[in-house]
Amino acid sequence: MKGLWKKIAGGSGNGDYPPKQQQQKMLWLAGAIILGIFLILIGNSGKPGHSGQQKTTAETGEQKASAPSVMAQEEEMLATRLKKLLSQVEGAGAVDVSVRLASSRRDKYAINTTTGRKTTEEKDQAGGTRLITENTGNEQLVLLRDGQKEAPVLEEEQAARIAGVLVVAEGARDPVIKAHLFKAVQVALGVEPQKILVLPAEGGK
User: Domain 70-105+159-200: which topology?
Assistant: First the structure.
């Protein structure tokens, strides 16, 4: 090993460096080799982790993009039901429906609220007294037991607020059929007239 370092440091024979310079050169070479190995190890350990993080981020983004929101699911459900209903109107022909919501359905559950007040009297070093009042509150969801299962008690169900309804039907060129479709949407969804639009389909009668 000593001979190998001697060759790296400056060779052998008449061209050898003085001992002090040869030792300095060996230290520089050893430091350079160790630094190179350290940089290689850092580079190799960092790349897989970075690649894995990018892959995870991409997969998460795809999942978010593919998963429909609760509101979108409600819009699709309402449009499907309304389309089936309007298709049964005499003379309506083929019908297509689009529903847009301002807010989704909300369920309000019963909550048991407990409040309390605690008053404490304290004396300070000067001989005076002071009253400390502490208000406490606790809210707990009311549960109804059914055998081995427990379910929250539904207190109020708020229907989804509809922003607008679009109906495209083949028979909507006929004013009478168009009026029937318009009235059917208004009654079925309980929506204001200004939020309903009924149009004839292209090529309709």
Answer: GMP Synthetase; Chain A, domain 3 (3.30.300)
